[in-house]
Specification:
861 residues; alpha+beta; Jelly Rolls; five-stranded antiparallel β-sheet; 25 strands; globular; transmembrane; Uncharacterised_YfhO; membrane; Putative membrane protein YfhO
Length: 861
């Protein structure tokens, strides 16, 4: 009997298969564990989902002052979820359920609980779409479903989903892109290609880049490998792909343009290590973390008779290309935007190997025993070679055992299909392949992800205790919030190394962690002010190095510190305390908006110390263009200190630490400086190639990355603030270091305290997402109004109803010219080029729809 609704049955089968593929994670969920990574999953994926959902459900789509010091989330989080189709659909469903009171909370814990179910549904659609694409290419339903299982249930899907969930969306769009290409070649219909290009570019620009490269490779090969007799001519095909590719890009402009701007406005130090052309260390037949080629694929790949099928030949060729690219770190760098090699594109290998198996299943009826024996011999030779090359091969690992069992099982089933060529045996073989994929997926989850990746530790306890979301800290935050009436104040606090703690614990903080951040803020931290963050790493900023001037300048009104920590910023007094922590309040607060006339230029301060730059920002305003002379320089007191070696030899800038720890002491020669802070600046490089280290200066500790770490900032000019002391103790672990350009500056805070005495003339401050309004009475007749809004393209301002120029001020923030008297100031933010991009998207969509509709009318369909 023919099933009336085959697609419904197919999707239901895909849903069941997807659930089976998640068996381990479902079991974990029942026990209160979550399908999220302990590092980026918990530190980025869950907080960003929480932040964006709260924004979107409240009607704010563009900006948030709760992300770091403030950021255009539509642009900067486009790498993650802000334009993710899966997330947008999920958010709509969650909003509906929340409106019906089915869901009561959408905190981080909610998104952690939902992760496995979102993944199951996504994978079901991946399986369904892929099976339909294979079927369109002329493969029977059973074989197409089998090939789709090998694609969707590959280890990389689960690796992507757990560690960087948005990566897994790429699994959806690759089959659609291939379908679009095939529709053009076979039917000269570009509609699906246009749709796939547009949705891929809208969803995530980073994986769109990878998918576009993969699609370009696919198109290039297909131009010379026709699959049917009446395909579109090459020249016309190229023209069609070019025109509709541009139209797809145009449709995506509303999302793609702001995303690319954010990427270009990011700062990440260039990868400086040598990249090999070839590296054969990864074992893709047994133990690869990225892609393990199924045994059945290797058997099929070595059967010459299968190559009579054009489709099999095509998939086999793509698999070969994929293998060659996989073993080239240069290719991995190319797919990662010419940065550090990252193996994130290998889902393409899973797709083409699944396609090859699906196409091969169609031809097993003509397979002979002689061919199978030859294929088995080649496969055994390949596996033996892989074992010999892999110096770290573990014969007792689950992957080695799994492959060792699956290969003979596949050979026996193929032999049975040759000996008794019945349709039932083909179905049994297909069931075996799918079952093997399910078993492999769950073994991969249990061992490679849960154990090796420490995901088994991610549970409710982790997400509701110290190190992530401490109840003790929550109570302190509630005390702070209860007594505050300011529209904006910031709290310096971060759980462990989780820079997005403010999002999780719902306060405005001084830290952020994202692959894309505002370049101006990163420069502010890394270069302009040399703010030490306690931990060197790219893609993040944190704290203010306990520097009181910066706390006051950026509304850092509170700091939470562990009891006994001596690094309390100057001018901070204890407010309240709990068992393990103390809350300190800043007594030298500066307003969110303040005016200034004394202007300095960044160029004029280029050779000045960070302390001089702080004073310039306190006394006036630092502008990107021309400005007045530099403020009075702060004296360098280095000559007043005598250098003494401690378990080390220090000669001509080379520091050899001979003890377990050692370094130098800088001892003051004359009268002590006791009221204020010392700023200790120096250039520090580790001579060891691959060893990170801890640097301590008096009671302050900070960690530095190894020279070969891909997360190294290459910022070696450091400025460390410590409370005033007669002796400065610089300590490092045993090793060789370059320690040069030593300088010591004394900060008595007269400038800060004088500025803190001034009253604020700002009133009626309102911050509503991407809109900031206030009234400012410029009684001092100052020239500029400076606000602590991070500068980025997209901000527009008006003063008394008239457009005003938004200036980049104090290295990373905004300012506007103002007039004497009352100034009604309004700032509004829209993603960069949003208006133009929206118009391009609308026009491109209309052109695309008109062409498709017009073509259908012409064809009479």
């Amino acid at each position: 009997m023919q099933w009336k609704y085959p697609n419904v049955l197919l999707f239901f089968s895909c849903l069941v298969l997807s659930a089976a593929g998640h068996a381990v994670f479902l079991s974990q969920w029942v026990r209160g564990h979550f399908m999220i990574g302990i590092d980026d999953g918990a530190s980025q994926m869950m907080p960003f989902k929480k932040l964006l959902y709260e924004q979107y459900s409240s009607g704010e789509f563009f900006y948030s002052f709760d992300f770091g010091l403030g950021a255009g989330t539509f642009s900067e989080l486009s790498y993650y979820f802000s334009t993710s189709i899966v997330f947008l659909i999920t958010a709509a469903v969650v909003f509906a359920l929340e409106s019906l009171h089915v869901i009561e909370s959408t905190d981080v814990l909610f998104w952690a609980n939902a992760a496995v179910f979102i993944s199951i549904i996504r994978l079901a659609f991946v399986l369904f779409i892929t099976a339909r694409v294979f079927a369109y290419m002329g493969i029977s339903r059973l074989s197409a479903f089998t090939g789709a299982a090998l694609y969707g249930l590959s280890g990389m899907y689960f690796r992507h989903t757990v560690y960087w969930e948005f990566f897994a969306d790429a699994y959806l769009w690759l089959p659609l892109l291939i379908l679009g290409v095939e529709k053009v070649f076979r039917e000269q219909k570009p509609g699906w290609f246009l749709f796939a290009i547009a949705i891929s570019l809208i969803d995530n620009f980073y994986f769109a880049y990878i998918n576009m490269m993969l699609t370009a490779i696919y198109i290039t090969v297909r131009l010379f490998f026709p699959l049917t007799e009446s395909e579109i001519p090459k020249r016309k095909a190229i023209g069609t792909f070019f025109v509709f590719g541009l139209l797809g890009l145009g449709i995506s402009a509303i999302s793609f343009v702001p995303a690319v701007y954010a990427y270009l406005n990011n700062h990440r130090p260039a990868f400086q290590q040598a990249i090999e052309w070839v590296n054969l260390t990864d074992n893709i037949l047994f133990t690869s973390r990225y892609i393990v080629l199924p045994a059945i694929f290797l058997l099929f790949w070595t059967i010459p008779a299968f190559y009579r099928s054009r489709l099999f030949r095509l998939f086999a060729l793509f698999a070969l290309i994929g293998v060659l690219l996989h073993y080239s770190p240069i290719a991995a760098s190319l797919f990662n935007g010419f940065s550090a090699p990252q193996y994130r594109w290998e889902y393409f290998m899973a797709f083409v190997s699944g396609g090859a198996v699906a196409a091969g299943l169609e031809r097993i009826g003509g397979l002979t025993m002689r061919q199978l024996i030859a294929s088995s011999a080649f496969a055994l030779l390949a596996y033996n070679l892989a074992i010999r090359i892999d110096q770290g091969f573990d014969a007792g690992s689950w992957q080695a055992v799994f492959v060792s069992l699956s290969l003979p099982a596949a050979i026996l089933l193929l032999a049975a299909a040759i000996r008794w060529p019945r349709p039932l045996l083909k179905k049994i073989l297909a069931v075996y392949i799918v079952a093997s994929a399910v078993v492999f997926a769950n073994f991969y989850q249990a061992d490679t992800i849960l154990e090796t990746g420490r995901i088994k530790n991610v549970n409710e306890e982790l997400l509701t205790t110290g190190g992530y979301d401490s109840l003790e800290i929550r109570s302190l935050l509630e005390e702070i919030h209860a007594q505050e009436s300011d529209p904006i104040y910031r709290i310096d606090w971060m759980e462990d190394v989780r820079n997005n703690t403010p999002i999780v614990q719902e306060f405005r903080g001084l830290s952020a962690y994202s692959s894309i951040l505002n370049k101006n803020l990163l420069y502010f931290y890394l270069y302009d002010l040399e703010i030490d963050m306690g931990r060197e790493s790219v893609s993040r900023y944190a704290s203010l190095g306990n520097r009181a001037n910066l706390h006051s300048l950026l509304q850092g009104k509170y700091t939470i510190m562990e009891k006994g920590d001596p690094n309390v910023p100057y001018g901070f007094e204890e407010l309240t305390a709990s068992e393990n922590f103390v809350v300190y309040r800043n007594t030298n607060n500066l307003p969110f908006a303040r005016s200034a006339s004394d202007s300095y230029s960044e160029a004029g301060l280029e050779t000045s110390s960070p302390l001089v730059r702080e004073h310039a920002m306190l006394n006036g305003i630092v502008l990107d263009g021309d400005g007045g002379p530099a403020p009075l320089s702060t004296a360098d007191h280095t000559q007043q200190y005598q250098i003494q070696e401690q378990a080390a030899v220090y000669d001509n800038g080379l520091l050899e630490v001979q003890g377990e720890t050692g370094g130098i002491d800088l001892t003051r020669k004359d009268g002590a400086f006791t009221e204020g802070d010392l700023y200790v600046s120096f250039h520090l490089e580790n001579e060891a190639a691959s060893e990170g280290f801890i640097l301590t200066v008096n009671g302050y500790e900070t960690s530095r990355k190894a020279n070969d770490s891909i997360y190294r900032t290459y910022v070696d000019d450091l400025t460390i603030r410590i409370p005033a002391d007669d002796t400065i103790q610089i300590r490092l672990p045993q090793g060789s270091y370059r320690l040069t350009e030593l300088q010591v500056f004394e900060e008595a805070y007269e400038v800060l305290e004088a500025q803190a005495q001034k009253s604020s003339n700002a009133a009626n401050i309102e911050i509503d997402g991407s809109t900031v309004t206030l009234d400012y009475d410029n009684v001092e007749q100052d020239e500029y109004l400076l606000l602590n809004i991070p500068y980025e393209r997209g901000w527009k301002a008006s003063v008394n109803g008239e457009p005003a120029t938004v200036l980049k001020a104090n290295y990373a923030f905004v300012a506007v010219p103002i007039k004497t008297g009352m100034n009604a100031v309004e700032f509004t933010y829209r993603p960069p080029y949003f208006g133009i991009a929206s118009a391009v998207s609308l026009l491109s969509a209309l052109v695309g729809l008109f062409y498709i509709f017009f073509r259908k009318r012409q064809s009479g369909s």
